[in-house]
Request: fold
Amino acid sequence: VTTAPPALAPPRRRPGREHAPAPAGPRQRERRTPLWLLLPAAGVLGPLFAYPIYQLGLLSVLDFRQAQVSGGEPIRFVGGDNYATLLRDGQFWSVLTATVGFAAACVVSTLAVGAALAVLLTRAGRGPRTALSLAAMAAWAAPAVSGSTVWMFLFDADLGLVNQALGLDGFNWTYDRYTAFALVGAAVVWHSFPFVMVTLYAGIRAIPDSVLEAAALDGASVWQSFWRVIVPMLRPLVAIVVIQSIIWDFKIFTQIYVMTNGGGIAGQNLVLNVYAYQKAFAASEYGLGSAIGVVMLVILLAVTLFYLRALRRTGEAP
Amino acid sequence: MNRPGSRDPGSRDLGNFDIGSDVKVSKISKRAWRRVADATAVGLAIVTVFPIYWMALAAVKPAGEIHSLAQRPWTLAPTLASFRRVLGVENFGRYFLNSLLVALVVVVLSGLVAFLAAVALTRFRFRLRTTVLVMFLVAQMVPIEALTIPLFFLVRDIGSVVPGVGLNTLGSLMLVHLAFSLPFAIWMLRGFVAAVPEEIEEAALIDGAGRFTILWRILFPLVAPGLAATSVFSFITAWNDFLFAKTFIISARDNQTLPMALLIFFKPDENDWGGIMAASTLMTVPVLVFFVLVQKRLVAGLGGAVKG
Reply:
């Protein structure tokens, strides 16, 4: 089950840098080929990816509600009005804070669990390692919806195994804002730690034994060699894993929607994604919903810039 | 000082190697450590897989045991009643096939399109190549959930021209999932294409093979294993999707896919947990099988996607 350490192993042949000399021979004669090879991808991504992003920006500066959709009122350009509404909206700020806090808690827990288990994998024997890898794969593969439903069942007020085992008869985890977030967070971490574990495990395996031997000879403990040797050597990989997790956990939609039934009691468990969705499709405030979408987009693009820098530092980003 | 499991710097129980003088002590503590690690790994494996076990178990438990106030982690009277109810009464088979159809179409189309693009990006050097690459990377970070609003109107408008891909159709889901699975698929396939030695193509070229032959007869079969790994991700994106199914399939219940259909079993008064768990199991099993089958290549591919 475990694999060779692909993440840090040098690829057999890397695509050259832009400024590398173009190889002579057949390639030069076919200068036009890449265009038609890229055409199908462009044909799909242009209208279905790039255009909606433009439309999202456009909708966010329009007065676009149910009346405009049905043609009852004309569509008006309102400039920054939707954004101004958001800035004045107390709920928006509380949702934004909750989103950041929830994502941060999920990222930290995912990384802690994933990294701890990656180290554990390097220590365990073959059988237990296979067992843990397979179990993690199963959690990874489970669809978000069915993962959500089974965690709900486990934590059901009366019929849930957890409440019965802990003697919390009738305690409803989704009534309180924080226990609800904790429950959703547990499901999210269960779902996402395997990626961190597998990636970091591959990274640790790629560290030459001699380095760890040297650390041990110098009297480093497991704890010390983890923090002083493994972590610094894996820093680029860790950066990638951290940022990927931030991006994923910031975008959580399904688990929140399913487990808290669309954002919790009185919207106490809303995160930005769900909030935008509710504004648009439940309240028919499409312009306002789009403005929230733009806020998300901007935040995630900022994170992406860090991601690109981290990738570039490993020498692998174009 | 060198108790098994102690963490002081002297314990030297770090790796799989023997060092220095107190070999005996270090061996004992090493063995103890290994046993602790093994036990922890097995314990955590059980904890990790437990929710899936619990789901499958609840799916075959008789109703009486599900509504019991003393749940047991086993059942002595397994029954298929929940599955029968789900597939028969609630027409879940139909939704299952819908989901499967959407996912398979997305897998095939996205595989083909991504293969062509990956070849262009690894085998050719052209202006803006770097820009295109960075765009595919950035595209993976875009919160597609935020795009539901413009896409809803786009699909509505397309539907008035081409009814097959408008609102309430499976075609609309295929279209958006094709678009959203492409950037990652292209990024991941690059690594697999790059791993094929260029000499093979050059040899074929010298032997007089045409561009088309090289692409489909030579490169494609060599990249096929990587394509299989990539397709898992496309499959999962489409299969798991809840948001777009919820947004686009408004009134046509026959075109519902699994994730939305599953919510039928949530009822205000009392949730039908047997039904929910049976439906969840039906939804999980195909992905699980798919995932475990290509698991090894998947991890290699992720490495390629991160590094390639």
Summary: Chain A touches chain B through 128 residues (CB under 8 Å). The CA atoms of residues 1 and 130 of chain A lie 6 Å apart. Confidence is low (pLDDT under 50) at residues 1-29 of chain A. DSSP finds 15 helices and two strands in chain A.
